[in-house]
Amino acid sequence: MTTTVTPAPPRAARRACFAAFAIQGFTFASLITRLPTIKAEHDLSDYQVLLLLGGVAIASAVGSVITGYAAARFGSARVLRVALVGASVATLLVSLPDSVAGLVVAVCAYGLFVGQIDAAMNMQGVGIEDLYGRSIMVGFHGMWSLGAVVGGGYAALTLELGWSLLLSFAIVCAVGLVLNAALLGDLLVVDPIDGHVDAGDHTPRAPQVPWLPVLLLAVPTFVMWFLDSSISAWGGIYLVDGLSSTQSAAALAFTAYQAVLLVTRLFGDKVVRRIGPVRTVRISGLVAIVSMALVVAAPSAWVAIVGFGLLGAGLAMIPPLSFVAAGHLDADGGGQAVARVNVSNYVGYLVAAVAIATVAEQVSHRAMFVLPLLLSPVLLLMASRFAPQVRSKA
Predict the structure, then answer these.
(1) Which domains does the chain have, with CATH numbers?
(2) Model's pTM, two decimal places?
(3) Tens digits of residue pLDDT in 334-356
(4) Which of 69, 65, 180, 50 is nearest to 115 (CA)?
(5) Is the N end or the C end of the chain the one with fewer CB atoms within 10 Å?
(6) Is 247 exposed, middle or buried (0-12, 13-18, 19+ CB in 10 A)?
(7) How far apart are CA 363 and CA 373, in angstroms?
(8) Which of 250, 39, 239, 21 has its CA nearest to residue 151?
(9) Which residues, given as ranges, of the chain have pLDDT below 50?
(10) What's the alpha-carbon Rg for the chain, to the nearest Å?
């Protein structure tokens, strides 16, 4: 039996989705910024840290795939709220283990929930944008960036105050749980692709997603996350070991990138409404090429920092636009395409970690960003994959 369901009012759903993105950004940044503390407390080697982060990425990819099926059965709102609870609790659990094995279990559990959150909240974003009939997706990702900035600041404060991981993460967990309960009740109960929900029969729907268009969209999305991971993980190391900068100057690489990323996302929807997603991605690709060329050819750390900041403008709108494009490849509205494209996030992270480390080890630290530069034209060349699609019933 199928019944028509009226979703939450668009404004209420939009506010709830804003909150979900902000909670995710805050929790993620609060945890990842304390990674050096986790490394020291467990006496981990650099190689063990790489394996740990790799485990998180793989678990996240699995979580994203699971969400594609779970959202079709239960709806993305329910999956998102449950996964946010799981991520909040898992963050607290990361502070508890005395053994490396226990730490691995905790962080992989967190990664599993992160993959589910990333997929489900972007399904929500696509559905809410459909109700508005105009671009608002970039703003959701702007809220993630804002939450990440707050989370990073909170983590820095806890370090300054000398708080333990347990106390720091207990507060992160509590904040996540309270905000989830208070603010996420108006998420879309139904992803409004066809306006229907199964009222009693929870039989999973067979995916109706064309693989080739999804794959072609995942390629530029993978490149974006490859570049993002390169900057986030290796930008500071490049400045110190490749350009002989100070540690304090190196910290500005990530700060400049994230600051410009945030500002661009706060105003990005207006750009998309004015010139459309394809032209937006083409311009973004050009900016990415120029910024990576600046980084590779930089004669000093400050020129490279300008390049990193410029890259934030080039990459800011790729993820939200890729999820919108993916959502419109999904004929039955189950979220399969969004979940599959989301996997490219974690694949890009893993491949970048291995590739950049290999170049640094086998060639030089100065050559670390040559590969990201060579990949950046893909964004320009494949911008047409972001063209609006009209959903059609299979």
Answers:
(1) 2-196 (1.20.1250.20), 211-386 (1.20.1250.20)
(2) 0.83
(3) 578 888 898 998 999 889 888 88
(4) 65
(5) N
(6) exposed
(7) 16
(8) 21
(9) 1-3, 7-8, 191-206, 392-394
(10) 20
